[in-house]
Every structure is written in C-alpha cells, then in structure tokens.
Predict the structure.
Amino acid sequence: MKKKLSMLVAAFLAPSIAFGYPNGTPNYVTDAAPFCASCHSAVKAEYMPELPAAVAAKETPDNKHYGLIRLPSQPSPYIELTDEQKEKLINAAKTIDSNSTVTITAPQKARPGEEIKVTVKVKGGNGPVICVMLVDKPLRFQSRPVSSSGWMITGEPDVRGQDGKVQTLWLDRRAKDLQRNLNYVAIENQRFDMDKNIYPEGTVTYTLKAPNRPGVYSVTAAFLYGTENTDRAGFFQRPSGRILFSNEVGVRVE
Ligand code: HEC
C-alpha cells in the first residue's frame, strides 16, 4: 500500500519513470542489459575495468549510495533524515547486500547448434520485484545480451519465485504476437522481512542454442535488486538499487 502511494507521488513528480523504479520495470518487457540501470550502484568497482579507478569507485554502494545518504546538503534526497536514521538505512542496505547472491550453472561444453540449459539462481534484495539478465560478461556498462555473441535463446525462460512455482506474470505483459524468448526477466510478488531472514528468491532457466562457430563463449548472469523501498518523496533519485553479477562461465563450443 505504501508502495502504491509512492508510485502515485512519482507519477506526479516524474511521469516518464512512474512505471518502474522501484518495483522493477513492468513495462520494459524486452531484451535488456545492465547499463539501463544507471541509477543503481554497482556492487564491485571491478565491473568497470575500462574506467579510471576513481570513476569506477564512484559507482559502488560506499560512494554512490552511502556517500549520498551522508551528504549533508542538496541535492541529497536523504536530507530530512537524522544522522541516526541515515546510519540505520545504511546498515539495513549492507545487511541486504550481504544476503544477496547470484549463481549461474551451465555445461562446460556444447556442440555447435546444440541446445543447452543455463540456470540462474538469485536470492536477496528487498522485493517486491527482482530482475535477472543473461549477458556475456560481468561489465556494468558494456555487457551485452547473451545473444550478441551467437547464442540464441530458443524459448521462454522458466521463471520461479520464492514459492518455487512457475511464474509468467511479467512475460504475460508482452504483446500477444511477439516471441517470449527474452534474456531479461522480472520475478514479481516477492516477500521480504529482514528480521525473519526472508528475502526474495528465484530461479530462471534459459534454453539456449549454442553458436555455430567453435570457441569459448562467456556467459554471465546479472541480478538487479533494491535495498530501500522508501515511500519518501525523491525515492526515484536514490542510488539504492544494485547490480550484482554472477561468476563469468566459459562454455566451450566444439
Ligand atoms: C531513475 C533511476 C533508475 C533507473 C534508470 C533504473 N532504476 Fe531500477 N531502481 C531505481 C530505484 C530508486 C530503485 C529502488 C531501490 C530500492 O528498493 O531501494 C530501483 C529498483 C529496481 C529493482 C528492484 C525493484 C524493487 O521492487 O525493489 C529492479 C529489479 C530494477 N530497479 C531494475 C531496473 C532495470 C532493469 C533498469 C533499466 C531498464 C532500471 N532499474 C533502471 C532507480 C532506477
């Protein structure tokens, strides 16, 4: 309910982003890559090897998120909070981060054109929505949808949330005549209760046809989640979202 209210506030203040952020991106039902989440903090500076170290460091939670929370002046959207409230917010986000994980499982080898399954398991964030993307590399600004290196996602991803049941809520928003073989998936209606150690959780299984040309192809999962879920004005300016990558796995096609 609180969240609905904040969405209304956002609709009033910023019509162009009213239908997401937080609550994920209910209208972007298409292939996507992590660069889209420009407001999110990147969990590690190593996700930006192409940038000067100081610039990459600015994207991490310590600087981008907690730095802004502690900033005592405008344009901080946290300005109305007391120092104690600020530290509480930071500690909660740190707890969520330390409970957030993403893993990827893929076969080590495939024949050219063979169909394989890649399974991504995620846990963490504060819900109610979490997102998964299948990309080539763990790069915050330069990773690409996995299909860009020759993989073809051949079917609709199998999406399961906390309850372990198949969930098609988000895919069902796709226009009727379009294919549903997307690399980007939102898992919705996830419960969160930090005190009870309940975090959003999901498994996404992709079916992929291997590239035709032999070689070693990188596959990585990106996990997007939130850490605040605030109902305060200005929430959409907050860098409380996260981008976390799985290990990069190499599949040998031969
Ligand atoms: C205008 C800034 C902004 C942009 C751009 C943005 N996000 Fe976010 N996103 C947020 C904020 C703020 C949150 C709330 C985080 C929280 O709960 O603390 C969020 C949360 C999320 C969440 C978790 C939702 C939830 O209910 O907590 C997902 C998933 C997400 N974003 C995906 C994306 C994707 C995918 C893109 C690119 C298409 C994107 N975001 C772009 C600001 C942004």
